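does this look right to u?? adenosine-5'-diphosphate version
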Amino acid sequence: MAKFKWAADFFGSLKFRLTVCFVLLGIIPGTLIQAGMLNSYEKRAVSIRTSEILSQAKILANQIVSNDYINDVDAATINAQLEQLSAIYDGRVMIIDESFHIVRDTYDLDAGKTIISEEVINSFYGNEITKYDSENRYIELTVPLFEKAAGETETRRTLGVMMVSVSTDSINLNLEYLARSTRVMGMVLSFAVIFIAYLLGNLLVRPFHAMSKSIEEIQTGYGEDLLSIDSYTETALICEKFNGMLGRMKVLDDSRQEFVSNVSHELKTPLTSMKVLADSINSMEDAPIELYKEFMADIGNEVDRETKIINDLLSLVRMDKSAADLNIANLNINELLEQILKRLNPIAERQHVELVLESFRPVTADVDEVKITLAFTNLIENAIKYNREDGWVHVSLNADHQYFYLKVEDSGIGIPQDSIEHIYERFYRVDKSHSREIGGTGLGLAITRSAILMHRGAIKVFSTEGEGTIFNVRIPLNYIS
Ligand code: ADP
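got this back:
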């Protein structure tokens, strides 16, 4: 198959198609014009020849009648003229009398015979008939021989018919010569057209070659960073889209790098602490067992922290996957929230925070239990964690015919206005040391937001520093895949 790849490439190329189009555009009209020209030359030549012979024949017809030639075919002057007419036009003249007898035939073949043809009969009715037979190459015309009229109004009798048939060989010879020379000209022109078409095809696809070369350069890292081929509106448009895509890839690459460096940093922090703790205990001689225990407890805490970060990262990676990974089921959201609150109650009690759930109506919705539980837990846990002593957290659930609404309201420390737009970013924390103290990783809200968006929902936050925060979540009751 690879053997024929070049052929597929060549015949499938724009260059080949353009060349073929130009060749067809050049050659088809040329051939048609050539055929048309030959045809009209033939028509014109035949019509000139016909009218020439017709006028000669009419003059002769008058003389024939004047000299009463039909009854006296030996009249020398008329015979001479008849011979002359047939000689000039390479033809045959026959004079036919009223009883359809051929009284004179310049070929001397059919004199005395009877001729009854459509044309002859028509001419006896007073009509001049002309006919061109292109296959047998002759023009035939029949002219009535009218009796001389005595007065203007008197109808004239037809005494006979003169039939002239002339060969059109000379016209055909000319036609053949003309056809031959136009064929040669056509061939020369065809070669020129093919050559020009090939050049044009090459020229027109050049911007596309330039484009693929530029893309290759961008790919290898040499040359310009942006694609710019403005030869055609189309290439400019493709370049614009391509540059847009490059920009997006760059943003993605930057954010990936930032994420990797953040992850490394976050994972390194507990390890550094552990190393410091281990080194300091090792450097102490005769350290008391209590100190060992204390340091080992600290190291244990750091291990827990590292585990939490890794777990959160895994959750986040799972959220980043496609919506096809959602495990949708129709769940009772009231029960789901009750369970979450039950699990979080001990933490709330430890912080002396009052945790209240208010359900306005029973709600069932299509959700992924694991992901939505994680999202709601993060929100409620944050509301408890970033609260004040003896504060409160109100969780309320409501619904309409399309969505269910979760509101998590707290009396906590609030979020500064300039931090609000960053809180969903990975590893973002308003107060790093505070968040670290209470076991935050900075990934919770990023996970929450991804989970809600996967359910085609929305999340909004309102917060006043020192007063509290409200998170409003809206999720469709029926999952739209
Ligand atoms: P963390 O693991 O640090 O809690 P999150 O992504 O859950 O990370 O939250 C990001 C930051 O947003 C937190 O560090 C905190 O500063 C702020 N934040 C989140 N929820 C609240 C809240 N209910 N009240 C005040 N601050 C909050």
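The mean pLDDT is 90. idk if thats expected tbh
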